[in-house]
Each structure stands twice: as structure tokens, then as C-alpha cells.
Design a protein that fits this description.
mainly alpha; 21 helices
Length: 437
């Protein structure tokens, strides 16, 4: 594919960034430009610039991407998560959980404690989305009680959720990366931990320092233990591996039972509560479908293939003139860039790994890279990018549950940013050395 055609294929992403980020920067207001509007403009542009097809055929391709099974699955999760979150709030489950959290975690350790909680739960669940669904409403409630920024508290949960997505043995990304590189999960985990640990320690230090002056309000009322059940059930069942749709459905049903038992809900108010929660997810559903359609057109036009071709070709050109650690460093950087760009084009870290895994394995074999470290690079950089794109499922879910703009959350995402710095330094300085020879 020619460079001009490849750039045109990728240009809808540039249009989205221009409309959303550049406009927001110019007017100095990230709330003024809705993500839905930016994606609508970029999607129309993607349809118009797709050549060689009738307009009806272009729209068909766009609609196929907007309605594929993975997009629809995420939409069903959004719908059920909205209904669960709102009904849990209306029966007092959020207030009860916030009260318990403020009672057991010292105020100075509140931020660090929430981050560690998110890390451990995501590690057990193996999913960042499940962790966000369970913890973001609680974090938003704590923010209102402590006077902290809702976006900041939400970012703590989102950052910790990617810890488990990156490391958990049952995470889709871990499974995809280890299968692509044909290495064991335990070996990949050990290498990955060397890279992740410095980032976790640095973020914990930041949260402890920031929490030094926090004055949390200790609830005077006793903890309503029964109302903790919805969130406890969601976490436990998700950890046990039950389908997230089934877990959320059971949570909604439990909210109804608890609401009826203490008269906080009746049949009509329960239905109204679910409707309110679902309506609150409306913009997220629209963004998910628009981004899915736009990404499908990018793939159809060869944008992803162009990226892979150019990066792999660039590496081959430098092979003859460079040797030793230098070429290995470039090879690892190429793999990191490849999976990162693929994630930008797919908005799905697992799909990005599956798309680029075969090429990464070939590059690893050709330049004698350690497969365990390459698997770690694939997983880490895909999770890193997924945690920073405003149209990714995790940030969309978090912004919907917390009621804040995803761009505002991104500005507080310390863990992904620091993890990215550490991961790049690990490539440049050949760390960990045992797996970088």
C-alpha cells in the first residue's frame, strides 16, 4: 500500500483528535466538545473518504463494525451496569459501602488504599471493566463525602483496574500475549512484575503524599451490612468467573429484593430507577457504536495493515547496519509501537495483541528477543494505550458511572502514565537484564 493511501486510511483518527482534543485545547475547555460529536464528524469523514464503493456499501461496512458482536456485548454491559449502579444507589448500597470504607481506611491512606483495593480486585477478576463497574460508584460516593475531585477518585480506580488487566492469569490480554509468544503465564508474570513494580511503588508514594492532608468524615451511623450485599455479590461472583452479564443481572435482582424489603423501592420506582441508569449510559452507547463503525472502515481501507507494514519494514531496513543491543532495543520499541498503534485503531487491547502477536513473534525470533519479555511488552503497552484513549470501553464506562468527562479522568491517570515511562525505560536500559540479553 502506498504511503498516501495508508495515511488517508488512518486519517479519521486524526480528524477525531483535531475535533476533540485540539478544539478543546484552543478554547481551554474539555467539557465543551462532547466525544459523541467528535466521533460523529470523524465517522462521517471516514464514510466519505472510503473510495471505490457506493455510499450504501460504505454505510454497510460502517454498520457492520458498529454492530459486531464485541461492540454489542459492550453495549449490553453498559445497559446492565447503568441499571445496576442506579438501583444500588437508590436502595442506599453506595452510601453503606462508602460508610464502611471510610470507617476502616485511615484518612491519610484513603487514596493509596483505594488504589490497592482496585489492583487486588482487578487481579482477582482479570478484568478492568468489572473492577470499574464494582468500584467507581463507591469512589464517586467517597469523593462527595471527602470533598475530593470525582474525576481524581475515579482515575484511582481506573488506574488500579489496569494493574490486574495487565497481570492477572485470567485476563484476556495475558492469555492472548502468552499464546502469541508461546510462553507460560507464570514466566510472563515474573518479567511483567519487574516492569510494573516500580510504577506501583511510585504511584503509591504519590497517593500517600497527596492523602497526608485528607480529612475524611467518619460516619456516625452504624454500617448497614445488608446493603453491602449487592457490591459484595458482584465482586465475589466476578472473581469466581461468572459471566459479567449474568452477574449484573443478579445484582439488579438483588437490589430489587433489598429495596422491596425495606420499602426504599417498589415495583414502579425500581423500573424507573433502571430506566434512569440505562438513560445515563446513552452517550456511551452512541460513542461505542460510532467508534466501532469508524474503526471498521479504517481496517477495511488498510490503515492497520499499513502501520504493520511500515513498522516491520523500518526494522528490516536497519537490521544490516545495526547489531547487538541496539537492534534488540529497536525491535522491542517496534513491537511496543505496533501494538500501541493497533490499540488506537481497534480500541480493544485484546484484539490489538491478537492482531500484532504473529508479527511480534517473528520479530522476537529474528532478533533473538526473549519471548517472555516480548509478551510482557505486548500486554503492558496494549493496556497502557487502552487506559488513555477517551473512546476505550474502560474510560467510557468510568465516565458514565461517575458522571464526569473521560478527558477529565485522563488528566489524573497517574498509574498508566508512570507505567508507560517505566516500560519505555525498561526497553532503553535493557531491564530486567536477565530477559534482555
Amino acid at each position: 500500500m502506498s504511503t498516501s493511501k495508508g495515511l488517508i486510511a488512518l486519517s479519521p483518527l486524526a480528524v477525531f483528535l483535531l475535533v476533540y482534543l485540539v478544539t478543546s485545547l484552543i478554547i481551554k475547555d474539555f467539557y465543551a466538545v462532547p466525544v459523541t460529536s467528535a466521533f460523529l464528524v470523524a465517522s462521517i469523514y471516514a464514510v466519505l473518504t472510503t473510495g471505490g464503493l457506493k455510499l450504501s456499501e460504505r454505510i454497510e461496512i460502517f454498520s457492520t463494525g458498529a454492530g459486531n458482536s464485541k461492540v454489542l456485548l459492550m453495549i449490553w454491559i453498559f445497559i446492565l451496569a447503568g441499571a445496576f449502579a442506579q438501583t444500588a444507589k437508590d436502595i442506599g448500597a453506595v452510601d453503606a459501602t462508602v460508610g464502611l470504607t471510610l470507617s476502616i481506611i485511615p484518612p491519610k491512606m484513603l487514596f493509596a488504599g483505594l488504589f490497592l483495593t482496585s489492583c487486588f480486585i482487578s487481579m482477582a477478576m482479570g478484568t478492568s471493566v468489572g473492577t470499574i463497574v464494582a468500584l467507581v460508584p463507591i469512589a464517586a460516593g467517597i469523593a462527595s463525602e471527602t470533598g475530593s475531585s470525582v474525576a481524581f477518585m475515579t482515575a484511582i480506580i481506573v488506574g488500579g483496574s489496569f494493574f490486574g488487566d495487565n497481570l492477572s492469569f485470567i485476563s484476556d490480554t495475558t492469555i492472548a500475549a502468552t499464546r502469541a509468544m508461546d510462553c507460560s503465564m507464570s514466566d510472563k508474570f515474573r518479567v511483567n512484575l519487574f516492569i510494573v513494580a516500580p510504577a506501583v511503588i511510585a504511584v503509591l508514594a504519590i497517593y500517600i503524599a497527596m492523602g497526608a492532608g485528607t480529612q475524611a468524615v467518619i460516619p456516625s451511623e452504624p454500617v448497614q451490612w445488608l446493603k453491602l450485599l449487592p457490591y459484595l455479590m458482584v465482586i465475589v461472583l466476578a472473581v469466581l468467573g461468572l459471566n459479567v452479564l449474568l452477574v449484573l443481572t443478579m445484582g439488579i435482582a438483588l437490589n430489587f429484593i433489598l429495596g422491596i424489603s425495606d420499602a426504599s423501592l417498589n415495583w414502579v420506582s425500581w423500573l424507573s430507577s433502571m430506566g434512569e441508569g440505562i438513560a445515563g449510559m446513552g452517550s456511551l452507547i452512541v460513542v461505542t457504536m460510532l467508534s466501532g463503525g469508524m474503526m471498521e472502515l479504517i481496517r477495511y481501507n488498510g490503515g492497520l495493515s499499513f502501520l504493520i507494514e511500515k513498522l516491520a519494514g523500518s526494522l528490516d531496513q536497519k537490521q544490516s547496519s545495526t547489531a547487538g543491543k541496539g537492534i534488540k532495543r529497536r525491535a522491542e520499541l517496534c513491537i511496543a509501537a505496533l501494538v500501541s498503534l493497533a490499540n488506537l485503531c481497534t480500541a480493544n487491547n485484546t484484539i490489538a495483541i491478537l492482531t500484532t502477536g504473529g508479527i511480534a513473534k517473528d520479530v522476537a525470533d529474528r532478533f533473538c528477543l526473549d519471548r517472555k519479555k516480548v509478551a510482557s511488552i505486548l500486554d503492558t503497552f496494549s493496556c497502557l494505550i487502552q487506559g488513555l484513549i477517551p473512546y476505550g470501553a474502560q474510560l467510557l464506562m468510568a465516565s458514565g458511572l461517575a458522571g464526569v468527562d473521560s478527558a477529565h479522568i485522563i488528566s489524573y491517570l497517574y498509574y498508566p502514565f508512570i507505567l508507560g515511562i517505566v516500560a519505555i525505560l525498561a526497553i532503553f536500559f535493557r531491564y530486567p537484564r536477565r530477559y534482555s540479553r
